[in-house]
Amino acid sequence: MPTTVSKELSSTAYVVLGLLASLGPSTPYELKRALADSVGFLWPFPHSQVYAEPRRLADRGLVAERRERSGRRRRIYSITPAGRRELLRWLRGRAAPAPELRDTGLLKLFFGTGASPEDIRRLAKDRYESHRDRADGYQRQREQVAGVADRWQLKTIELGLRYERTVEQFWKDFIEELDRDPP
Amino acid sequence: MPTTVSKELSSTAYVVLGLLASLGPSTPYELKRALADSVGFLWPFPHSQVYAEPRRLADRGLVAERRERSGRRRRIYSITPAGRRELLRWLRGRAAPAPELRDTGLLKLFFGTGASPEDIRRLAKDRYESHRDRADGYQRQREQVAGVADRWQLKTIELGLRYERTVEQFWKDFIEELDRDPP
DNA sequence: CGAATCATGTAATGGGTTACATGATTCA
DNA sequence: TGAATCATGTAACCCATTACATGATTCG
Known about the structure:
The structure is a homodimer.
Chain A: H1 11-23, H2 28-36, H3 49-59, E1 63-67, E2 75-79, H4 81-92, H5 104-110, H6 117-145, H7 151-180
Antiparallel strand pairs in A: 1-2
Chain A binds a DNA duplex (28 and 28 nucleotides) through helix 2 and helix 3.
């Protein structure tokens, strides 16, 4: 059971480590819940991962696994000292280059010459509404957690909000441009 | 060799289809080049994929493969009528929900309570510069391709630019906030 | 008490990333 | 002509997604 870290862990792994560090010992299901109403908006993953990832981390000695003694015998994971060290090391290290946009709506626009003007218009409208709704969602979320979340977490929500508003505005402007200057 | 599409293709697949549709018959390496200076900023993938993906598409009958007769016998791919139909179908369909942020810098900020104030400051500075440089890159790219790219492609670059400026501004504001109100 | 829904997990598949490898060309 | 760099490809591994499955609980 080597505690040496062969290569950089996945971001999902750090999410799990981070959650375990702040929640204390947790079952996979508790991780899933915590994910849903905290980092989930930033780094979501399906619930199968909250079973797989802690197991991988346990193999590296970064979390410890024990079982309930009672009926269900659920697995309970807790972060180890080595896990805390690794989390901190990651936190202090340089962030990987920011990801590209990877927005399928934009991708469609890029190949838009193949589509009809109505298709483009539908796409724009669809994207506009979708980002507007998400921005509204962030705004509500920010109000809801204003009391409980810490300063840094609030900041991340703020960037989410700014991002969605930017994209919303982009599609809005684009629609108006289409009206002024139809293709 | 069934031309029926069992399930939705990956976005990477549509990038390849779209490129083949606009470039005409191409070798994997030509695809790689085209990717690098067009959609690459939107949907990048490593060059191993420009070999793997056309093969997958060929299995579905969406592209045709032939080999050079000369020395290298390189593979040359071209989009088939079925491929064009599929590309168009995708273009006209609803876009998948926009992706989450998935920004590792933001992720570190989220777990920032574990780090020291200096760590946070370093992170902010690093992210600020990185997004600023990328925004500058988009601006140059927009000027360079202003003549050749079509209207929709220019639009996608514009969103890239707006996005990067938004994030740049976020980290800039954040740094100033840290100065005003140190943690 | 029966049906939803929540809770809890495993299996299979496939795509993406990384690493490995080796021809060709260019150009100092 | 030798060293970079470009061109071209394959292999292996890992992780994420999807689908499958079945206990528990709630609640009408």
